[in-house]
Write the structure tokens for this entry.
Amino acid sequence: MSGENGGPAESLLVALNIRRNSAKVLIYMACHGEATSDDLESALGIGQPSVSAAIKDLDGLGWLTTEQMRSDTKGRPKHKYRLSKAFEAIADEIERMARNRISEIEDGLKHLRLA
């Protein structure tokens, strides 16, 4: 993983139909281990609604866990996010997704040549 500034890792994730902000959050989490929404907003330069959508996407893939943080103040509860498993296991899932996508493209090319 090459830092949180995107690059080839972000491009790969986007090519696999993972939203760009979700890819950014995943890359950040892989590099930093845990974060709050505020951390993600400031580090990635994306707004709270985009962070929430990315968290929902990654949680839906089973890649994040959410922990409610204790607070002495009133208002909305704060959450801390972590990867739900070792990044190597997530990388294995991403590799499987990429290989499946490659197979789909190859099958499409075969059908195109037969047309």
